[in-house]
């Protein structure tokens, strides 16, 4: 089994790429981390850091549950990767699945503009800036850091599929 994180900052294209990629891979499940908490749960947690931790706890629980399923080959989840999250998922997947991280790294000016249906507010622009300063867009344990500034989501998916094929070839 392959556990695949599509990481990057807010508005880097993580969810769009993950959804498209999950449609291309067989026996694949996409976990939309943003949907792991209900609106009521989100509203009950006033501060951002606590809300993020609640999302991650739900993600860890879901990954643990899905790792025991026999009919799944790939689990994709989209969220910015941090050192703590990386360490937790490494523990969860140890001996059970291959864990790989692909980080989307478009130019910050792209992330800070409205794309698709997402409206980027001033507070989100500031969070994106903070994420880039922290290096979320170049997470050091990434297996692939992909500059998708000038790629369509479909082109990004094709690049990721080529990368995944190299993993399969190296395992043989």
Descriptive report:
The two termini are 15 Å apart. Helix 1 crosses helix 7 (153-171) and helix 3 runs parallel beside helix 4 (83-93). The chain is 48% helix and 15% strand. It is built from seven helices and five strands. It has 172 residues and is an alpha/beta fold. It has helices spanning 14-24, 39-44, 48-66, 83-93, 108-111, 122-134, 153-171; strands spanning 2-7, 28-31, 74-78, 98-104, 144-146. Strands 2-3-1-4-5 form a five-stranded parallel sheet, with helices on both faces.
Write the layout of secondary structure elements.
Elements: E1 2-7, H1 14-24, E2 28-31, H2 39-44, H3 48-66, E3 74-78, H4 83-93, E4 98-104, H5 108-111, H6 122-134, E5 144-146, H7 153-171
Parallel strand pairs: 1-3, 1-4, 2-3, 4-5
Helix pairs in contact: 1-7, 3-4
Key features?
48% helix, 172 residues, single chain, 15% strand, globular, alpha/beta
